[in-house]
C-alpha cells in the first residue's frame, strides 16, 4: 500500500511512526506482541521494520480476534527483551509519532524498554499524536480519517504495519489539507498534545506555573514537590504500587532534583 502524496516533512532529525499490537490496553500489565516502525529520515527517505514478539503471557482470545495474533503464532518468537536493543537502536535519536500514541503506544513502549533495562528517556523526544490532530480538526477514527483525508478504505485494520502506514499517510494528508498547520515537528508535537503530561501515561501533569502536579487521588492538582516534602509515605506507596515504570522514573527524577536543591 503506497501513498502518492508529494508532501515532505520538514525535519531536523528522523521521526519514527509506529504502531503496537498488544495483549490488552493496560500500560502496566499488558505486553507488546507486534511492533511496526516506519522511520522517516531527514531527507524523507523511509526505513521500515516489523517485529513479532512473544509477550511471555497469554494473549486473550478477544484480543486475538481484533489483531489476528494468537499464542500459537508467537510461541517460538523472541521476547521483547531479546529484541529490545535492536528496537531501541532503530528509534534512537528520533522523534516519535503514532495514532493515539501519546496515551498508549509510547507509554507502553517505554514500559517494555525500561523492563528490558534500557534507560529510555522521553525528555528530549518530540512526540506527534496524529489522532489528536485529527480530533482537533475533524473528530473521527483512524479508518474514517483514512477515508476522509485519502479517499481510501482501510481494508487491513489492526495489522500493525497497515495501521502504521495509514497513520503516516493520514499525517501527510493533514499537512496538505490544513494550511494553518506548520510543517515542523516542534509545532506539530505541541499541537497534537492535548495536555502537558510529563509521564505520558497521564499521572503527572505540568500546571500553568510549569510545576509538576498529580492528576489523581487525594493530591490531585497538588505540586509534587509539596507531596515529597510533606507526605513521603504517599510517594513511597506510589513507588511500590502498580504504576508505570516510566511514571516512577519521572517521580524519582523529581525527588532527586528536590534533594539536590535542598543540599545547595
Notes on the protein architecture:
The protein has 264 residues and is α/β, with parallel strands linked by helices. It has 2 domains: 15-191, Ribonuclease H-like superfamily/Ribonuclease H (Nucleotidyltransferase, domain 5, 2-Layer Sandwich), CATH 3.30.420.10; 204-263, no CATH class. The protein contains 11 helices and 7 strands. The protein has helices spanning 61-67, 71-74, 80-91, 101-115, 130-137, 142-150, 160-177, 185-191, 224-230, 232-240, 245-263, and strands at residues 15-22, 32-40, 46-52, 95-98, 127-129, 204-206, 212-214. The strands form 2 sheets. A 5-stranded mixed β-sheet has the order 3-2-1-4-5, sandwiched between helices. The mean pLDDT is 91.
* Uncertain stretches of 5 or more adjacent residues: none
CATH topology of the largest domain: Nucleotidyltransferase, domain 5
CATH class of the largest domain: Alpha Beta
Question: If you compute it from the alpha carbons, what radius of gyration comes out, rounded to the nearest whole angstrom?
Answer: 19 Å
Question: Helical proportion?
Answer: 40-55%
The helix-and-strand class reads alpha/beta
Spatial separation of the terminal alpha carbons: 58 Å
**Overall mean confidence score, pLDDT:** 91
CATH level 4 superfamily of the largest domain: Ribonuclease H-like superfamily/Ribonuclease H
How many structural domains?
Answer: 2
Q: What is the strand content?
A: 5-15%
What is the number of helices? 11
Which sequence of strands runs across the widest sheet? Answer: 3-2-1-4-5
Shape from CA axes? globular
Count of extended strands: 7
